[in-house]
Amino acid sequence: MASFSVNRATVRRRLIFIFVMTILITLLLISRLAWIQIVRADELYEQAWEQWNHIIPVQAARGSIYDRHGNLMAGSAAVDTIAAIPQQIEDPDTVVKALAPVLQMEEDRIRELVTMDNSSVYIKRRVSPDISQAVREMNIPGIIFFPEEKRNYPGEQLASQLLGFVGMDEGLAGLEYYYEDYLRGAESSLLYPADGRGRQLPHHFNRFAPLPENYDLRLAIDESIQHIVEKELAVIMEQAAPRQAMAVAVDPYSGAVLAAASKPDFNPENFAGFDPQNWSLPVFSSSFEPGSTFKMITLAAAIEEGLFEPDEIIHCEGYVVVGGRRINCWTSSRGGHGDISNYDALGGSCNVAFIKLGETVGKEKLFHYIEGFGFGQPAGIDYPAESSGLIFDLDQVGEQELATTAFGQGISVTPIQQTMAITAMVNGGYLLRPYLVEEILDQDGEAYRKREPEVIRQVVSEETSDKLVDMMESVILEGTGTAAALEKYRVAGKTGTAEKIDSEGNYQTDEFVYSLAGFAPVENPRVVLYVAVDGVTRGPRFGSHTSAPLFARIMEDTLNYLQVSPSQQPVEETDPEE
Questions:
Q1: Is 292 part of the annotated catalytic residue set?
Q2: Is position 570 within any domain?
Q3: Could you report the per-residue pLDDT of 207-216, keeping only the tens digit for each?
């Protein structure tokens, strides 16, 4: 009996021990389960989600670019991108041999991609519909397709340097680059569920994460005026075979750039097939000696300071000696202009007269107006890599520098700087900031940001502006710009012929930049236009045969397009006494 009693006690203790251990283990399991399902729930869910779902990054569609009237200039079209899920590629060699000729890729490159230790990998992005269909028909397990956007430009080469171009995922030039942060949508994702070995589960659909918001651009550019400009630039390239020809048209009261182009240019859908030197727009990014168009700055300074005497007679014998250096007038080969009035010196583009006028103004005042008209600093246009040009620091200006600057030699300026300077002379003396983008639009088509005309400063008075307009009209009526005159409209402007400098710093005798900066109609200016023809190699080498006719054709077609009424006032010679 005693032995049985001991055994029952032992059993009881063991049962109690087992019960307590069971309770403890149960509590531990409950605690562990609570730790997993409550404390670490989010973390573990995220890890599980990553195991179940595979992600392929996808770039959202870029914003579109429209001209001022809503015409599409740059947009995006849906195309297929081909990718692979390496875990599902059972026979890489067969897949490689099938894809290489269709995708026009090296076999080694495809093999490298389809055997990567990645959940997914791009094979070829943004392929043509024909290529996509050919690969689809192969029905290769592990090869997947998803839509992306490919940039397209309906006008092909139209405004190519202005718009720029896009690489695989970002803007690389022009407005595409400058406004990248607005045009580019943030990266989205393509998701697909997979099993533990990374194989896509059947009967499950791919889905995109929500697309982020991007923006569209509405330009100040008028597509029709842009077409006019580029058509005429192509004509002059054919006729005169210059190294380059360019033009920019601006609204004189807002600073809006209506058109800007140069030739040769490129096709942004195949930019790699063109010379990279043609990718940028020299109207904004290049600078060169202005030549006689710069004489308008000297004239403006003299009139504003009350130092211009229109009837004063200057004798030009074709050159003048300044600081021991002979500086020629363009008429030196024929003995100069002879006696010429200050008023007629503008129409005759007399270097000697303007050297003397610059001396009268003085270097401090002249360079005050040069800087006031915006030279020596960027014009501030919304375009990448704008050049600032190069003018002398005041302490560098001696007799010779003052003399050459007065008629536009020895300094470097950009076409847009010259255009905006003429604009200031036309609109009452106000220097405006030029701009290309009128509005940034949200996805509802509402203006997220809208550009308003911006006055930088008033450089000259309205009275001086009126006098400059009258004198520029005389250049077209009876001076060096007669080839730019129009039958229906009063035109005003200033011609320029700039010598080019070779690699050794010497002026060339057979390389010139012919330019003309002007506006029309005189009584109510609608367009300020600058044109330049650089390095003519065919036909007559004169501005009267190149830049002036180019200016006239662009201006006439533009005014007709804008339905500007013909000038009502009779075209008369301006009286120098007025």
A1: yes
A2: no
A3: 555 555 689 9
